[in-house]
Amino acid sequence: xxxxxxxxxxxxxxxxxxxxxxxxxxxxxxxxxxxxxxxxxxxxxxxxxxxxxxxxxxxxxxxxxxxxxxxxxxxxxxxxxxxxxxxxxxxxxxxxxxxxxxxxxxxxxxxxxx
Amino acid sequence: xxxxxxxxxxxxxxxxxxxxxxxxxxxxxxxxxxxxxxxxxxxxxxxxxxxxxxxxxxxxxxxxxxxxxxxxxxxxxxxxxxxxxxxxxxxxxxxxxxxxxxxxxxxxxxxxxx
Lengths: 114, 114
Hints:
The structure holds 2 protein chains of 2 kinds. By secondary structure, chain A is mainly beta. Chain A is built from no helices and 12 strands.
């Protein structure tokens, strides 16, 4: 069965610093995709970045980049130049099966300090 | 494009009562997903619709739960004879089959069973 592991329940970062949120995954599929979502205290899930298993380059979206290490089965999220508005829960997820349902990790709560 | 909407945003009910939630996906999105998120956890997949057909259901979806998507537009999720363990955030997401794998989430319905 597919599984997502996020080992950091909480992380702190100083404003304007970079932070890395860890995610490891387990799958026997050759074709898969990895996502990061942000969930502010208001509750909505906001898509941040996507990496396909066959993508040779790491995905980037503005201040977000995904450090994809296929052999280690890791897909860490890097946020550069942290902002106070980045304080939220962050979830790593994997799409599973032909219908692309998402399997989520337990999340990491990020607090950005001024 | 108004995004995914969910109603109600909050629902408080007594144990044993029935509740129904509604999800309106982004127009022209033919894929619709329901997830459940309990406190401190990531969302868990409940069920998936492609147009009006319910193609996959999680084992989490007991026989007290039923979901429909008549005419392939909005979807409803009904919980019969609610239990305190049903208290959670119920999230709806939609995506377009022919576009990226990104799922767009609604704001969720928070259910509290007393």
